[in-house]
């Protein structure tokens, strides 16, 4: 069985007790408003507030602010309690995400260099802060896309500490959802890795092939289908290697390795819609190409799978 990469993935780290039972307490937010140890994580436009301005030389940290720092009417989502003391926040402190609008965000902090996206900065955050940022962003994105019930079209309101939305007319409860997506490191008989360039990226950015799992489909079947659709390659022996949340906006990335099926011709055939270019790389070829091509960012599971195949860290941003 292949070793799991999950524990090494930047956005899979977590050092918080989600304290799920507290979500059912109707007066939870009133209790936290009176708790001097309670803290908030501020979100604005998909970014989190840091303690200081972004600095390439200094490890970033979330600004965990007093409860009253944000407007009372802002959407609040209970994230859980800290497991140990860190950065001036005691163990057991309750942490709540607060989603700010275009008026309250700049009012809280006008310095845009203190707001940052976990997508690009997540690998530099500590274990506690990485987990808090990803939990907060995933739930905030879900709230933003479920202001109306998909069943009735009626408005919905947040309930149960931000973990449920309720249809205001029918009372039906809606719960957070995550979209499953597979991402695959494909190798051939010579142990070369195939990388593709997506139509939405810069022309010289290359990554692994990936796609969403369809209804009624196993993860392994999704690997085979997505790879063939995007590249014309037939693969076998799909093996799970780890998972990472990717709330940009609402995915769970399920990492796999797979081998080229020797029973097929397997000519590279980019689909022309999502994938515009495909290339095979040996380890030496990939290392020699780093000045020419861009790799996925260090926060992504794609980068982890590529470097695991490569056998070490690649000298690229």
UniProtKB/TrEMBL annotation:
Enzyme class: hydrolase
Catalytic activity: a 5'-end NAD(+)-phospho-ribonucleoside in mRNA + H2O = a 5'-end phospho-adenosine-phospho-ribonucleoside in mRNA + beta-nicotinamide D-ribonucleotide + 2 H(+)
GO molecular function, one term: hydrolase activity
EC number: 3.6.1.22
This protein's record includes keyword NAD: yes
Entry-linked PROSITE patterns: NUDIX, NUDIX_BOX
SUPFAM superfamilies to which the protein is assigned, alphabetical: Nudix (SSF55811)
Classification via CDD domains: NUDIX_NADH_pyrophosphatase_Nudt13
Keyword Magnesium: yes
Cofactor(s) needed: Mg(2+); Zn(2+)
Keyword annotations: Hydrolase, Magnesium, Metal-binding, NAD
Classification via Pfam families: NUDIX, NUDIX-like
Residues annotated as domain Nudix hydrolase: 176-307
Superkingdom in the source lineage: Bacteria
Protein family (similarity comment): Belongs to the Nudix hydrolase family. NudC subfamily.
Protein name per Swiss-Prot or TrEMBL: NAD(+) diphosphatase
Source organism (scientific name): Microcella humidisoli
Species classification: Bacteria, Bacillati, Actinomycetota, Actinomycetes, Micrococcales
